[in-house]
Amino acid sequence: MSPSFPPPDKSSDAAMSRRNFLRGCAAFGGLTALAASLAPLREMGEMGDYTSKEQFLQKYYKELTPEDMTKVIARIEGEVQRQYGLRPHVRDLKPMDGVEFVYCLNLTRCIGCRKCVHACVAENNQSRNPEIQYIRVLKMPHGSMDVEKGDHTYDAKQVPEKGFFYMPVQCQQCKNPPCVKVCPVNATWQEKDGITVIDYDWCIGCRYCEAACPYWARRFNFTKPEIPRERINPNMAYLGNRPRKQGVMEKCHFCIQRTRAGRYPACLEVCPVGARKFGNILDPDSEVSYILREKRVFIQLKEEMGTSPRFFYYFDK
Amino acid sequence: MENRPPAPSGRNGALTNYWLGGLTAGFLALAALFVVKAGGHPVARAVIPLVDPKFLATTPWRQTYADLVKAKEDLSDYDCYGCHDKNKPPPIRYDANHKIIVPQEHSDIVMGHGSHDRNNLCFNCHNEQNLLTLQVRDGREVSFDNIPPLCGSCHGPTYRDWENGAHGRTSGYWNRSLGDFQRLSCANCHNPHAPRIPTREPAPGPHQLHPNPETHEPAEAAP
User: Fold this and answer.
1) Interval A246-302: pLDDT, tens
2) Tens digit of each residue's pLDDT (9 = 90 or more) over B8-37
3) Are strands A219-220 and A249-250 parallel, antiparallel or unpaired?
């Protein structure tokens, strides 16, 4: 390493001196090594789990103009098509005027068959592995409403079992939702029809809401969700069942893609005993208005928490 | 590199080279680690079988007479006068305990409607004058494809709940201005001869990663 090395003559082939050649080789090798050490990033790209530039630069949901939303929906449809190979129908459904949703569940009728759990998974494109399920059916001993005594892993040959009743628990769509209060980025909020929604593109995955929810209703995508192509539900909503990415929260949204189009939620339609009732509480002729008016016993789960759920449990007799 | 001004001293130049060499070696080592996956292979997740589509079906448990008519099914079972005599009400025989004897031709019928043999008489619902119809105890004739008023003649509160959509299965649109709303009939869920809902096989529960929280044993060995 002589400091007095003469500058090479650039006009001739002598520019490629032995030293410069070695330096070039070393620099090339170094860059190659750097590139090779970034290989795990490539695997990430193959999984299609990158945040695209459009998503990264996307504005907050409430600030999106209708034109912006058209572009966002086109991006989401493209992403779903690339990943799952089918063209979905994504909509951004807004709350209807004069509608506030309420859910009523008849504990006298529920037999604990868990069909609602799986209808929900199928409708809402939840991950099949690892399993994400919005509904947890608790098997509870008769004479208690203590959820601590509930068991959601029961593995019975036949249901209902003697001496037990079954209580499905999902997002209670609270009027005073603790999950919304703790969100540091306002990625979750309550809409005027009573549904607490999540903007999956705004969520940072801090899981504060999961900790705040007294009902264990929120689920986190620890890994990239796995959904078989043939089980994808192509009827999607932006705030509803469009496929989620790794690192975001999700939860029951009263099947926003169905209910905001006037239909019943999937868990209700599949319930073989008609224990689930859903409707507009502001309409005095709706089933839920009738139930809240006529039926005798109501339980708002963990009423003492002051969350004021829009999910009511009742008994027939 | 070529454009850099000549290093001011040999010591500094050598230092730069050592740094570059060291970084290159570091990156190469890192790349080698990734190539041989020295960090360990990702643990394969336990396979979770997809749920049987039968648990996703929204079809009713039973078919009613009205469904059979609509589906143009074989209705020969409902041709009562193929065997019975038209002008003679069928006789009902009882055993020593005053329990009804179900004739062999109707052996598929389980008598299980109500406790204390309250419905120990076919003609509580069937019309002995015309077996092709049913009857309410006050004498009103009820056709086979519209039975809720008959059931409601005894089960008043349940009938009222059903009419208001609070009892029984519904499907379609909660918003009646946007689409149709379907309500199932009594016999779509209840067997009129034994109305209690039978027990069923439940759908699989959540897959447990650690069934025993003490040991953190995986539920199934990873393949």
Assistant:
1) 999 999 999 999 999 999 999 999 999 999 999 999 999 999 999 999 887 677 899
2) 556 678 888 888 888 888 888 888 888 787
3) antiparallel
**Domain coordinates in residue numbering, chain A:** 101-314
State the Cα–Cα distance between residues A5 and A162, nearest whole angstrom. 94
Q: Distance of alpha carbon A197 from its chain centroid, rounded?
A: 9
- Place A12 in a pLDDT band, splitting at 50, 70 and 90: low
Inform me whether the C-beta atom of residue A262 falls under 8 Å from chain B C-beta atoms: yes
Class level of CATH domain A101-314: alpha beta
Domain contains B175 = yes
Closest-CA distance, A267 to chain B, in angstroms, reads: 10
Q: Summarize the confidence of residues A170-180 as an average pLDDT.
A: 96
Which SS3 state, helix, strand or coil, does residue B21 take? helix
Which residues from chain A sit within 8 angstroms of residue B168, using beta carbons? 274
Nearest CA of chain B to the CA of A14: how many Å? 14
Nearest to A112 among B10, B26, B202 (CB): B202
What is the chain B residue with the closest CA to A8?
B2
Mean of all residue pLDDT scores within chain A: 90
Closest CB to A273 among B2, B27, B197: B197
State percent of chain A over pLDDT 90: 75
Chain B's closest residue to A226, CA to CA, is: B48
Chain B CA closest to residue A30? B24
> Among A209-213, A223-227, B28-32, which is the least confidently predicted range?
B28-32
CB contact under 8 A, A33 and B31: yes
Q: Are B58 and A269 an interchain contact pair (Cβ–Cβ within 8 Å)?
A: yes
Domain count, chain B: 1
- The answer, for A242 touching chain B at a CB cutoff of 8 Å, is no
CB contact under 8 A, B169 and A273: yes
Q: Domain limits at B94?
A: 53-189
Q: Does B179 sit within 8 Å of A263, measured CB to CB?
A: yes
> What is residue A25's predicted lDDT score, i.e. its pLDDT?
85
Predicted complex ipTM: 0.82
Q: Where are the beta strands (DSSP E) in chain A?
A: 89-91, 101-106, 136-141, 164-169, 188-190, 196-198, 219-220, 235-237, 249-250, 276-280, 298-299, 311-314
At A182 the pLDDT is 97
Helices (H), ranges, chain B: 10-35, 65-70, 148-152, 156-163, 186-189
Alpha-carbon gap, residue A277 to A105, rounded angstroms: 6
**B223 within some domain:** no
